Each structure stands twice: as C-alpha cells, then as structure tokens.
UniProtKB/TrEMBL annotation:
Organism whose genome encodes this protein: Geomesophilobacter sediminis
Family (UniProt): Belongs to the NAD(P)-dependent epimerase/dehydratase family.
Stated name of the protein: NAD-dependent epimerase/dehydratase family protein
Gene3D superfamilies per UniProt: NAD(P)-binding Rossmann-like Domain
N-terminal signal peptide: none
Entry-linked InterPro entries: Epimerase_deHydtase, NAD(P)-bd_dom_sf
C-alpha cells in the first residue's frame, strides 16, 4: 500500500513514520521546499510540495498514492498577531485541506485520513465528549477545523473518497512543545505550582498512541467514513498529572493548595483566563467508538507516555 503523509517532518509525523516502519507499506512524506527532512527514515520517500494554501498544487506528488494522512495544519496559537486570525486559519485548515482532498480524489486516492481536534466540540465539558456531539468550537482554530470536517464530508459525498476523521485532545510525547513542555520543565526544576486544589479531569493522548490510532484509521476497512475521538483512555486532574510528571522525572512534585476560584480570578486580572481555563477546566473524551469499530486500544499507558517524554526531556534540557 502506498501512503502519502503531510506534516511528516513534525512532532506527530515523526511518531507516525516510526509506527509505519513496522508495516508492509510504502510511505511518501510531503516536504516543503527548504524544509529539513534529514531526520526522516531512509525508507521514506520525499515529495517536495508547496505550502498548503487555497491554490496549492499537490497533483503530481499524489500520483500513485492510495491513502493520504493529512497532519499539516495551521495550529492553535496562544497570542495570534494576525489581523484576521480566523481567515488565516481558514486559508490552510479549510481551503487548503479541501483542495488537497479534491486533488487526492482526482488522483485516485482511496482514503483520506484527517487529523482534526477535540476543540471542534468545545473547550470544557463536565461530561466526556463523544464523536456524535454537535460542533461548538470557541476559537478560530477550532472553527477552521470544524469547517474543514464539513468540507471533507462534502468531498466524500461528491467523489466517493473515504474520509476518516480523528480528533485528539492535547498530544504529548518526545518533541512536545508549548504549554505541556513548559509545565514539565517547571516540574523538572522543582518550581512550586499552585495546582494542588484542582480536581478537574482532562484526557490526553500520547503521540505513540495517536500514531497507532492513525495507522488503524489508514489500514482498517471499517474506518471508512467514520469520525473518532482518541485518548490514552485515562483522564487525570492537573494536580495528578504534575505528580505523575514528577515521578517520571525522578523529582518531587511541589504543589500549593490555591483555591480554583482564586486561580481563575488571578488569570482574569493578568489577561490569562484562557490559559488558566485550560489548566483548571475539565475536558474528557469518550474514545469507546474507535475501540468498538476498529478494535483499537492504546498500546501505551499514560505513565509509559510520560516516562518516554521525561527521558527525552532529560536529554534535551
């Protein structure tokens, strides 16, 4: 089987290529001109492509592909300086993705696996999100991803392309960046964190589990036309996550008992409400659908994922 992977040089892409090294498949990685692809496995083919935009042309690169796994995206940005962030997200995540899917269908691609996000359903929920829940995105990134899902379903209806959508929560693992990395580095340094009173529940997904789920979505016949949520199968409070990070790093967690209401108030005063909401709020995922239909189970536990991330962190910093 011939696979074509966008975003192959990134965080999730690296894990996905490692996962496919165990399968009898041929993988072509979409690589931007000038992008460093020296770390890609030798067995992976390279196809130089333009940036994903409404007018991009991937037709030549897609020749011979049977399955496309689309990881490339304009990702969530904490302090977006674009004049119109939603339009910038749409250029890549909506219009670029739809164009890629239509070119894939025209090239004879059978299946299109799309990495979306749980943010299409919202940011916080007292009960676990399910794949069937209605769209309720709250930021430009989530809106663009929800719109792209709708566009892909339309392409599927019009062309017969098998579209499979996978919605992860926060993804962590070796190579992680942004808030998760900042939190883990703070734990590594022994920084006191005012999180002991939090009893929220958050689902995460280890990058190795996400890669394995993507492989199932690409290869399993029953995945065609489905939308799945994926996680490690365990939801934890932020306080418990810090304790587990500390254990993985051979450190002691320094947690201070600050009331959640006070944390949120300080966040508002500092203009960091969104960041505090992500730390203090609950966002759980019901990933039973992918287990029921594909028989998929996460091959790694949360603690195994944190241990692998900790080993990487120790070598990097």
């Amino acid at each position: 089987m011939n696979l074509f992977v966008t975003g192959a040089t990134g965080f999730v892409g690296n894990a996905l290529l490692a996962r496919f090294s165990r399968e009898p498949v041929t993988v072509t990685a979409a690589v931007l001109e000038g992008e460093d692809a020296s770390h890609l496995p030798e067995a992976v083919r390279r196809a130089v492509v333009p940036p994903l935009r409404p007018d991009c042309d991937y037709a030549g690169a897609l020749a011979g592909a049977e399955v496309v796994i689309h990881l490339a995206a304009r990702v969530h940005i904490m302090r977006d300086t674009a004049a119109d962030p939603l339009e910038e997200f749409r250029k890549v995540n909506l219009h670029g993705t739809e164009r890629l899917a239509r070119q894939a269908a025209a090239a004879g691609v059978r299946r299109f696996v799309y990495v979306s996000t749980v943010k299409v359903l919202g940011e916080e929920s007292p009960t676990p999100y399910r794949a069937e829940d209605p769209y309720r995105p709250l930021d430009p990134y989530g809106v663009s991803k929800a719109e792209s899902e709708v566009a892909l379903k339309r392409v599927a209806e019009e062309t017969g392309l098998e579209v499979v959508i996978l919605r992860p929560p926060l993804v962590y693992g070796p190579g992680v960046k942004a808030n998760f990395l900042a939190l883990m580095k703070a734990v590594q340094r022994g920084v006191p964190l005012p999180l002991a009173s939090l009893s929220n529940r958050r689902s995460l997904v280890y990058v190795g589990n996400l890669a394995d789920a993507l492989a199932a979505c690409a290869l399993h016949p029953a995945a065609a036309g489905e939308t799945f949520l994926v996680s490690d199968g365990e939801a934890v409070s932020t306080a418990d996550l810090v304790r587990r990070m500390a254990a993985a790093l051979d450190r002691r967690a320094h947690l201070l008992p600050v009331p959640e209401a006070l944390l949120r108030q300080v966040g508002r005063l500092l203009g960091r409400s969104a960041a505090v909401d992500r730390v203090a709020g609950s966002l759980q995922i019901d990933s039973s659908k992918i287990t029921r239909i594909l028989g998929w189970q996460p091959p790694f536990t949360l603690q195994q994922g944190l241990a692998a991330t900790a080993e990487w962190l120790k070598k990097q910093f």
